[in-house]
Amino acid sequence: MKKTPILAAALLSAALISGQLSAQESKSRVNLAATQSVNTSATASSGATLANAAAVSTISVRAIKDFRSRFTKIADEQWSHIDRGFCAYCTKDGIKARVYYDLRGHWQGSLKYCDESQLPHFIRDVVKRTYYDFAITFVNIVEVPEHTAYLVHLEDKKTLKIVRVNEEGEMDIMDEFVKQ
Questions:
Q1: Nearest Cα to Cα of residue 122 among 164, 166, 169, 163
Q2: 157: three-class secondary structure by DSSP
Q3: What is the pLDDT confidence band of residue 138, given thresholds at 50, 70 and 90?
Q4: Mean pLDDT of the chain
Q5: Are 108 and 114 in contact (CB under 8 A)?
Q6: Which of 99, 118, 44 is nearest to 75 (CA)?
Q7: SS3 call for 81
Q8: Which run of H or E residues covers position 107?
Q9: Contact 167, 148 (CB under 8 A)
């Protein structure tokens, strides 16, 4: 089993979550307020709220463009500054997502949260063939450049498991807990 891509995805996601991923200082940070006026109609069409307009004005233009190309037709776009970069939050088709960018606006990875119904059928089939007695309670989808890993949370009467599945369908147990 090829554990390297899965391990790399898990480690990178942990680094992204903690905000410790290093990046060079940005020279391309642009004040969007200077290039476009922020008003009710502009923020409504862009998906940002007025409360979020001040935070968006200091975000890299490259990050905003990339985010909007990845996620179209969303209404709850929120941006925040994290250590050495930016993070965008949104919900699309019932899938909650956090998208991470470095200070220059380069996409570093995404963390998506969904349930069994939004899991790709191939991945669900791989998991259910082995763990047919378990219920899929929650799914994390970790995307980094050139790799995607699915962290599938399983539960039965006695056990909780987190199973990691890569794009090729290779699976391993990431964590296991016994209920008391």
A1: 169
A2: coil
A3: very high
A4: 77
A5: no
A6: 44
A7: strand
A8: strand 107-114
A9: yes
